[in-house]
Amino acid sequence: MSYVAPIFIGIAYVLLMCLVREPHRRRLNAVMVAGAGAAYLSGGGLGGWEFAFTALSTYVAYRGLDSWTFVGVGWLLHTAWDVVHHLKGNPIVPFAHGSSLGCAICDPVIAVWCLGGGRTPAELLRGARTTRMTESTEIGSGVR
User: Fold this and answer.
1) What DSSP state is assigned to residue 47?
2) pTM
3) How far is 68 from 96, CA to CA, in rounded Å?
């Protein structure tokens, strides 16, 4: 269950974020990436590397204000940082030993959604429906 729950947490995060309208959704996610980048700053156990990662994460988050791709990259960077902390540093939640691993499982779920453009389920369905209609029109009209 410790591997499944983080996936559901990531899905819940995505669904809650879908309630926020664009462009605020992307900008809020960029702020979340910046916050995640600083999560280990007060006790991650990796010394100066914590500051270097926070600086990198801040830059990526800033670029994410205007780009879903950078927001997704930010979540993937945080995933890697979670893995490093799980193996060598301190956990993200001091009293929960496996919390960094859980975060490393959750974050890619969010990253995939962001790299896909941060679309709502309705937007995804509209896009799929439009693509199917376009393909059937092209097949019926003899366009190749």
Assistant:
1) T
2) 0.85
3) 31
